[in-house]
């Protein structure tokens, strides 16, 4: 083989990978805050690239083309992770580019495996669109479950939460909506097929009908949606103090940070709130130390709360094991102002921790390599027990979700099953200040809102620097009930009403299994037929 021919072949290979990355990048731009829904057609481009995998090594070629697509998709989707390492650049800054490369490249493996599975099916013709959608949806479900799971920016969550297409999540969940979304987006690839015109055009016609169905169902569901909460619903105050992560963990800033939260907690409003919410890890201290005898913070907090008020406060907490060792927890603590003073009314310890952010999966080995978790604690956090609703006397039962626990579909349903009762609302406290003024907090808001659509439950969301919001049971942010990035203030809102359990909350991923069965049937129909 001549040098010129070898160079041309290598150039073509890199060109194909670049095209795959571009297709994935376009699909990633469909997610907030970009909202370029036309970018979803990147899935059609990616399917075409996999269809044309190198004939000499089709599976290997398909995998790397799919992986390149995933690399583009996740690079634009998780680039904000670098911001967390720049909070303390002298300690963690060197890890930022490696974190982005490893995270996006690792997540891209699932796209690569989906492409490999699709190519291995040898699907041809119009039915292959459903095979491709099934492969992507199955591997995205795997991504959301394997190792602790990281279901960030599922393709089905590209639709703006609360909008018309997003309402289908009440039927099929985010994973089922991923199957539908990818099938619709990939269908135009058949327009470039050879053969009969009807075979090329039929998938696109069905895709357009399905897209119209998404909008039609959403319009019908929202047509009867109530706009206002009940007049006697609890009044909740969401506090956003706009504390920059770079300043938060300096010990000398604790008095000022505490004063900022108290000022907002006691700010005048239209009525006295029954519940006040502070975000995840609101104060740079362990709650046990803040409320210890002799500490000035406990009495000051008790004085700030009105009699009967409850503070739901994201806090770092500790526990002592029988052997005397100390465990640290990322918690939501309920503090109530009673006649006898400030009392504990309940506590929820975060169950699903962020790898490398709240604990080190490799433990001692990672520490020896100079890697440590980002948590500002003497030790990594310890996972709490499986989630259950939190009941505080006089208030509707609530399911706390701390930080990225709000990414996981059905976490609230499973928690309700353990407790034998359904909560009436979801509370998501999160420290999105880690990610600064990037796309991360806006995407997190959109993803968390899908849990309201899936479960038919309202959600209140509190973060230190934005975005904090009140979200109804349809995933819609209530008008005027949102605090933007970098904004300090409060949101006073009557707790929106819960809906009856949705089809998805009742049957879970059963609908996804039906869709995957359809994909398996399509794989059989789309296989090339042998000729004598």
Describe the structure.
- The chain is an alpha/beta fold.
- It folds into 2 domains: 3-224; 235-496, Carbon-nitrogen hydrolase (Nitrilase/N-carbamoyl-D-aminoacid amidohydrolase, 4-Layer Sandwich).
- 44% of the residues lie in helices and 14% in strands.
- A hairpin with a 5-residue loop joins strand 8 and strand 9.
- The two termini are 37 Å apart.
- The mean pLDDT is 91.
Quantity of strands, as a count: 11
Largest sheet: 6 strands, mixed
Class from helix and strand fractions: alpha/beta
CATH architecture of the largest domain: 4-Layer Sandwich
Question: In angstroms, what separates the terminal alpha carbons?
Answer: 37 Å
CATH class of the largest domain: Alpha Beta
User: What kind of oligomer do you see?
Assistant: single chain
> What is the helical fraction, as a range of percent?
40-55%
As laid out across the biggest beta sheet, the strand order is 5-4-3-2-1-11
Count of folded domains: 2
Within CATH, the superfamily of the largest domain carries the name: Carbon-nitrogen hydrolase
Separate helix tally: 18
Q: Give the overall pLDDT as a whole number.
A: 91
Approximate strand percentage: 5-15%
Low-confidence sequence ranges: none
Shape: globular
Run of helices and strands:
HHHHHHHHHEHHEHHEEEHEHEHEEEEHH
CATH topology tier name of the largest domain: Nitrilase/N-carbamoyl-D-aminoacid amidohydrolase
